[in-house]
Amino acid sequence: MDPPVAEASPPQINALHQWWALTSRGVFGIVRNGEIVFAIIAPAFLAVCFYIPLRSMMDSYPGMDYAQYLMPIIALQSVSFVASSSAMRSSMDGMRGINVRFRVMPMNGVVPVAARGSANAILLVISLSFATIASLVIGWRPHGGVDGTVGLYAVALSVGLLVSVIADALGLLASSPESTSQLIGLPILVLGMLSTGFVPASRFPDWIAPFARNQPVSQFSDAMRAFNDGSATWPVVAPTVFWCVGLAALAAALLFWAERRSHA
Amino acid sequence: MTRTSATTAATTAQPTLTVTAADDMPTADSPPEHTVGAWTAQTLILSGRQLTVWLRDYSTLTQSLLFPALAMVMFKVVLGEVVADTTGQNSAYGTVPLVILVGAMFGSMAAAVRLNRERATGLLGRLYVLPINRAADLSARIIAELVRILVATVVLLIAGVFIGFRFTQGAWAAAGIVGVALLYGMAFSMMVLALAVNTKPTAPIVPLISLGASVMMFFNSGFSPLEAYPGWLQPIVANQPMTPAIEVMRSLASGGPITENLIKVIIWAALLLAVFTLPALRGYRRAATDR
Predict the structure, then answer these.
(1) Which of A64, A119, A147, B196 makes an SS bond possible with B112, Cβ 3.0 to 4.6 Å?
(2) How many CB pairs under 8 A join A and B?
(3) Residue segments in chain B with a per-residue pLDDT below the cut of 70
(4) What positions does the domain ABC-2 type transporter transmembrane occupy (chain A) (predicted)?
(5) Is residue B13 assigned to a domain?
(6) Residue A5 domain-assigned?
(7) Contact, B163 vs B92, CB < 8 A?
(8) How many structural domains compose chain B?
(9) pLDDT under 50: residue ranges of chain A
(10) Cβ <8 Å between B70 and A190
């Protein structure tokens, strides 16, 4: 009679360990691909390239301090760079078949999404830190006290995280990294430029001023400026809150769709 | 025995050889690869290939035409009134030339990416061992770039009309605008090509050139009037390659002095071509024969 064979107990699956491993992978990828360098350079580049050429023209308008005015869009554009790289990373993962491999492993479907989100959050914090440094160098100063400054960064971080999740989902849904690049790049370019981030709504032609004033990037910029100068009130901040709720709903819908399509 | 002499020997051994299977296949009486005739014919064929690749590459086509046109409209919408208040002139006369030059620069970088891809897949090496004139593919790339710049310039000039750009100085001046764009574009393309073939395919040469081109895009007289820049920066902005080209194009469209800026454009173009043509030729050969 054969001796009884001890059954090997299956390894303990720890979702937290898996999340940590995949987050580390994401962060190492960010460092290796040079995205971290871009997160440092991009805000400085943006600050220099808009502030130096436009300052003397913009400061000639009554009550305008262009360094103070420009800070929100520098932060928001930094956020958009993070979103772009997030989309490219998820698209590359899809192209290499890594997501398919994860699905056949004993891993909760939420783990890869959460890990990518965490890696994006780390990149977002780095990018916003350097956006702050770049803004301080050109002459921006926080005038809204502790509450105002917290509010300012709360808007930037909330928008950043939501847009990164949307970009991540779009990267999963896109057919190739090239199409992802254009899918993300075009809205960022249009909404960034045609906003009150660079020039006030009064300087836009009449036919496009209503769009420029009410589109999300303008609302985020205005809310951040209000927090920064201590004049934030509910009517000023409300559109930003509503846009964030809308972005959260869109992010959830896109992630759900991406997951559904990946299982099809 | 060299490849050319082997080909010649084969030709002399069978002087009556003709191919009847297809009319467009080479025959024994087609010109030897080292002749001007072969170079011309093969350059045209390979130029056609480059342009076909460009037209089929959606992302490059978008980068060359759609993004610049969009950027032009947005610069006009966002900064038009601010610039007009400062200069008293329609900002389109600076924006349109700026975007034409930016389109030429970024299109050249897309071509460099494609060159590196073809180098990595071994296509350059394959072309090099075929009985094709050594200079034909490089010439074809430059001609294709010029055609691309010409098409993009015409498209952007037409788009410019919709934002207030006008040709007030007649047809020859309009042709001069296209000529300046071609001269600038050719010089920049040669530089990008030389740098692309003289570095490893994995080197971040395109991102670095992109960064330089992006800085130039904001520090010129087309984006913001020269007097708006800090005093210490004005001489640099005034003499970087884009500013004189923009000013010549502006003057050709709306009137004004041309000579000084045209001389600067010619000097910059001649300098870039003189510095980068030979390295481009040598680097291309090395890139094609690398194993």
Answers:
(1) B196
(2) 73
(3) 1-31, 33-34, 58-59, 63, 134, 290-291
(4) 17-226
(5) no
(6) no
(7) yes
(8) 1
(9) none
(10) yes
